[in-house]
Amino acid sequence: MHKSENYYYMEALVSRLLADDVDFIKVQEKYYRILAGISGEEKLHRVLADYHFKDDATILYNFECVNEKGFSHEIDAIVLTTRFLLIIEVKQISGTLFYKPLFHEFARLTEEGVLENFPNPFDQAFRHQLFLSHQLSKWSIQLPVLYIVVNANIRTKLDQSLNNSPIIHLSGMPLFLEKLYANHHETSVDLEHLKNKLKSLSCRLPPKMKVESHRLRKGVLCVKCQFQNVMYYHFGLWICSQCGEKNKDAIYLALHQYRILINDRITNRELRDFVGIESKAVASKLLKRLKLKQLGSGRGVYYLIPDDILERRI
């Protein structure tokens, strides 16, 4: 499944941020919430893959775009049919969920008895609904735009205060779709045309936070040690002094993280400083083996780190 730039940034940051950084705990919590969200989206994907749609249907997952006023939209899933367009907002919140519709207040009671407020998913989905309804109107496409909030955590309890709210457990998704089909007639909408119009709006949104490079740990980090220890370079191998792990390809993940967190271009000096190689000649040899695209000349030489660096091999 398509993952956001924010996911890749936070994935790299959680293993690189210095442990004594003021934001270390906050970054970890944000990353774990992102992982929980992805887990919920994957569960939704399986349920929709199993469902037999009545007519032609297309599903756009993790739809990202910027509206004409410059504000972003992130939609977990958009189901396109010739009868309706359905926005799905997936939540993986645990505990017991409560809602005060008069105040648009959405909260959960944890198993430890702590009451916490959360952003209102109904307002989030309604905002997406207004946006997509506006777009369809601009395109002269007549199709009902609906939304539903889906909780993908089987242990979550929905309080009675949510009885009249557009929220269901994931297991109820097939029945919910059946009711939508029963209540909406088929239209003449060209789904391929609609899908292409929506895709023309989509774009990759940037990460939601940025951290200065001096707050990051340097070095090729040992995956086997869960990024706790730095590996050193010796005769073409990266070796962990703690667990003894030897890996010739560990440099790729380090460069991937450098590209995401710092820059997509790197010089010989910057490479040496980041991965802990003292010799300029050794670094030059490594760069040559990595086959990175070289640009500039003389002292201005630098190398481009491609977005598919993880897929490469020496």
Radius of gyration: 24 Å
Overall strand count: 16
**Helical coverage, percent range:** 25-40%
How would a textbook summarize the main sheet? Answer: 5 strands, mixed
Task: Report the sheet-strand fraction.
Answer: 15-25%
The number of distinct helices, counting runs of at least 4 residues, comes to: 8
Sheet/helix structural class: alpha+beta
Tell me the distance between the termini: 27 Å
Uncertain spans, ≥5 residues at pLDDT below 50? none
The H/E string reads HHEEEEEEHEEEHHEEEEHEHHEE
Shape: globular
Major beta sheet, strand line-up: 1-2-3-7-9
Look at the structure and give the mean pLDDT: 95
What is the quaternary state of this protein? single chain
What key phrases describe this protein's structure?
16 strands, 314 residues, 24% strand, 4-stranded mixed beta sheet
Question: How is this structure best summarized?
Answer:
With 314 residues, the protein is α+β, with helices and mostly antiparallel strands. 35% of the residues lie in helices and 24% in strands. α1 packs across α2 (24-50) and α1 (5-16) packs across α6.
